[in-house]
Amino acid sequence: MRRDAIFYTIFKRVPGLFFELVEQPPGEASSYRFESVEVKEPTFRIDGVFLPPPNATSQIIFFAEVQFQKDELLYHRFFSESMLYMYRNPSLYDDWYGVIILQSRSLEPEKTTIHRSLLNSSQVQRIYLDELGSPDEQKVGISLMQLTIASENQMVVQAKRLIERVQQEQITVLAKKEIIDVITTIAVSKFANLSREEVEAMLGVKLEETRVYQEAKQEGREEGLEQGIEQGIQLGREQGLQQGLQQGLQQARLELVPQFLARGMSMEEVAQLLNLTIEQVRLASE
After folding, report:
1. Sheet order of strands, 33-39 included
2. Number of H helices, E strands in the chain
3. I need a surface site. Which of 151, 176, 200, 256 has the fewest CB within 10 A?
4. Model confidence at 238, in pLDDT bands (50, 70, 90)?
5. Which of 83, 99, 131 is the last residue of a domain?
């Protein structure tokens, strides 16, 4: 499971959850939108940026970084990209904040002296997920983020408790649905080897009612995968492969495996949909 990608999924679906981590959230926190932004000359993309609504009293931008592996250049990259984005957009924002989310302190770069003025300032906040305390004692958003670092055994218990909390607490219907969708996304990513029925029994939810499952099915329909693979002559979409390009078709099928597994489909369902063997699906998911 790529946990940084899961976090960006969380932030994209429910941006307000991010501000449960922030020490001094802006008044318009609920109206912020999460985006991936491009900086030109040189061109690169910043995956985690929270942009304020146009009518916000103060135009404060938040840069977010999620780190689950050691990277000695983490702060070099984070601050240089953030500052270059501000340089390229000098008139859009009044202020900025950086929030760096790490699994644990052990992932901190060895040398941080060069960035000490920023790291120790009120504009930068570092969060260590394993130091946030018991998930049962945290806000729903923070408990949701802690779910990404739980072991498989802990994850089952924590996910079920969190679903119960979401259903019982005073949260809007839309937010409840979004949060449960994210919980199931985390679960199917962590338990990719389980069938849909096994994940449903484990969490006590119906995956067919969640966005992660519906998006996977819809994407398959839109790309014409079911019809194309049944006929054995095309993949679908604009890049559709010609009938004779068997090798290219097989490679295209294998590249789609992780995408469908991440959306909640079991290995058996993916194998049937893409006309692959279970062993081929397993190898492509590694």
Report:
1. 33-39, 44-51, 60-67, 95-102, 124-128
2. 12, 5
3. 151
4. very low
5. 131
Q: How far is CA 228 from the centre of its chain?
A: 30
User: CA 258 to CA 189: how far, in whole Å?
Assistant: 10
Q: Which of 116, 8, 141, 119 is nearest to 64 (CA)?
A: 8
Residue (of 229, 252, 233) closest to 242 by Cα position: 233
- Number of neighbouring beta carbons within 10 Å of residue 260: 22
Which residue matches tokens 């103060």?
58
Which tokens belong to 276? 């692959």
Place of tokens 């909390």: 165
**Residue 197 within a domain:** no
On whether residue 69 sits in a domain, the answer given is yes
Give the predicted TM-score (pTM) of the model. 0.66
Q: How far apart are CA 274 and CA 239, in angstroms?
A: 17
Q: What is the pLDDT of residues 97-155, one digit of tens each?
A: 999 999 999 999 999 999 999 999 999 999 999 999 888 888 888 888 888 888 888 88
Return the SS3 of 237: coil
Q: Assess whether 183 and 76 both reside in one domain.
A: no
Which among 191, 237, 210, 277 has a CA at the least distance from the CA of 13?
A: 210
